[in-house]
Amino acid sequence: MTKSKQKFIGVFDSGFGGINILRGIVKELPAYNYLYLGDTARTPYGTRSKEVVYEFTKQAVDFMFANNCELIIFACNTASSDALRKIHQEYLPKHYPNKKVLGVLIPAAEEAITKTRNKKIGVIATEGTVQSGAFVRELTKIEPKIKVFQNSCPLLVPIVEAGEQNSKATKIILENYLKPLKNKGVDTLILGCTHYGILENQIRKLIASNIAIISEAKIVPKKLKDYLKRHSEIERKLGKNGIVHFYSTDLTNKFISLGSKFFGREIKAQKISLD
Questions:
Q1: Per the residue annotation, which of 106, 109, 130, 193 is the catalytic one?
Q2: Which of 35, 56, 81, 148 has the smallest set of CB atoms within 10 Å of its CB?
Q3: How many domains does the chain have?
Q4: Residue that finishes a domain, picked among 216, 234, 252
Q5: What is the residue range of 14's domain?
């Protein structure tokens, strides 16, 4: 656990996918201290009920704020779509009135609106994110005339968590998930799960070159940089020692090996329990 009084930026995901987001953030903002939490013991979140996702997310928030996080980024679209609003409206005001939690869903929606030319946007995401309607809600809030076509992809998170993103089977599965969206003529595709950013190169090969891919790993770091510029009251509290701590609820050799691969350098992690 972090005993330092230095404040951290927390990055939370249900598994490995958020490490891809963290990598982008650290590259953009290397000076700050970071704490990553992957709830790998209970991944995936996308097939769970809203109530369960909210309870899991509260536990993660409690752990991260107890370990000196000043700001938490939900690098998990299921948490961002199912739990974030309730966390903002009910949990933070009561328990952490001076703390901030940010999601990744709205930045992706904003970026997609700037990229689309024909106003047809595709979204691939977990079942939970698709059923929540969060992307449809946020996209049409910005641009009411947008047409949004979604496809839930329940097999992709387990594929990434197993490190099988380069297999032939993954290519076939991706082709099946992407085909309905291609048939709708989308010109912009949101990778609506942080795990899917790890599959971006494979997806790029399967869709037309003129289809814009919206990957949160590329967008969120720039949005966070802008956020910290606008919120100096938070920025000045953050430690700037370039420290990165990793925690997992199911620490295995796979978490270390895949986590190191996704982060771009060797990581060390501690096992914790959120129950």
A1: 193
A2: 148
A3: 2
A4: 216
A5: 8-103+218-271
